[in-house]
Design a protein that fits this description.
It is built from nine helices and eleven strands. The protein has about 270 residues and is α/β, with parallel strands linked by helices. The strands form three sheets. It has a six-stranded parallel sheet with strand order 3-2-1-9-10-11, sandwiched between helices. Strands 5-4-8 form a three-stranded antiparallel sheet. The chain has one domain: Rossmann fold (3-Layer(aba) Sandwich), CATH 3.40.50.1220. The radius of gyration is 19 Å and the shape is elongated. Helix 7 packs parallel to helix 8. GO terms for molecular function: histone deacetylase activity, NAD-dependent; NAD+ binding; zinc ion binding. Its main location: cytoplasm.
Length: about 270
């Protein structure tokens, strides 16, 4: 079923700045964080300061990630990712800025992508900056914690798993082999700032766009909402596809309350 207003919106703009959020990836089996009112569905994700300062927070994070990565790392792009890749291939996408860390846009063939919050398929040393593929670190976690490999838990957002009531004190978290530093997924945690160069590059592309399309984001996090404010300040049209409320509802030219893959099906 097509959505004529959305189809018309996309059709009349040649340089769309696209911002995507968790709703774009839910049909790939990756849970989202918020309900239709924009409220948290679960406890908030790990905080940067706690991760860096508390060993037990790192143990809890990586134990849950050990379980969650097994399915997250196998996720495949869905029709929403493929539709946006087709939009770019048709020359109508100035840039795609994603709040997601799953790299599914790239897997679908999208070329011009800015990972606003980083990427979960890399692990970065907070001491020397060395980066390691997440699959390699998964192997190291498995070797150090063989007794955890029989556990299973429900998927949570961003490669997490709802591993509750476990005693994480025995979980071993490998340190950086090069310098012994703390290893962290190469993503922006809550309480951590998006790198300035990433924000600046995205803003430069937004300045070249003739409209903005939001796909599957409630925009409750300011790191994404700031770009909608910037688009509104420039007085370019803004459309959003999202099930439920967004923080920018009063700034939108068009709101489509459908699943992302259904709303974008006309592009396939």
């Amino acid at each position: 079923m097509t959505n004529p207003p959305l189809q018309e919106f996309v059709g009349r703009h040649e340089k769309l700045f696209v911002l995507t959020g968790a709703g774009c990836s839910t049909n790939s089996g990756i849970p989202d964080y918020r309900d239709s009112h924009g409220n948290w569905k679960r406890t908030q994700p790990v905080n940067f300061q706690a991760f860096m300062s508390e060993q037990h927070t790192r143990q809890r994070y990586w134990a849950r990630s050990l379980i969650g990565w097994r399915r997250f790392g196998q996720a495949k792009p869905n029709d929403a990712h493929h539709a946006l890749a087709r939009l770019e291939a048709g020359g109508r996408c100035e840039m795609l800025l994603t709040q997601n860390v799953d790299r599914l846009h790239q897997s679908a063939g999208h070329r011009q992508v800015i990972d606003l919050h980083g990427r979960l398929d890399l692990v970065r040393c907070m001491g020397c900056g060395a980066k390691t593929p997440r699959n390699e670190f998964q192997d190291a976690l498995c070797r150090a914690n063989a007794e955890w490999l029989t556990l299973d838990a429900a998927d949570a957002p961003d490669g997490d798993a709802d591993l509750e009531h476990a005693d994480f004190s025995s979980f071993k978290v490998p340190a950086c082999e090069a310098c012994g530093g703390i290893l962290k997924p190469d993503v922006v945690f809550f309480g951590e700032n998006v790198p300035r160069d990433v924000v600046a590059t995205a803003q430069d592309h937004l300045a070249q766009a003739d409209a903005m399309l939001i796909v599957g984001s409630s925009l409750m996090v300011y790191s994404g909402f700031r770009f909608v404010k910037a688009a509104a300040d420039r007085q370019i049209p803004i459309a959003a596809i999202n099930l439920g409320r967004t923080r920018a509802d009063d700034l939108l030219t068009l709101k489509v309350e459908e699943r992302c893959e259904a709303a974008l099906a006309f592009l396939l």
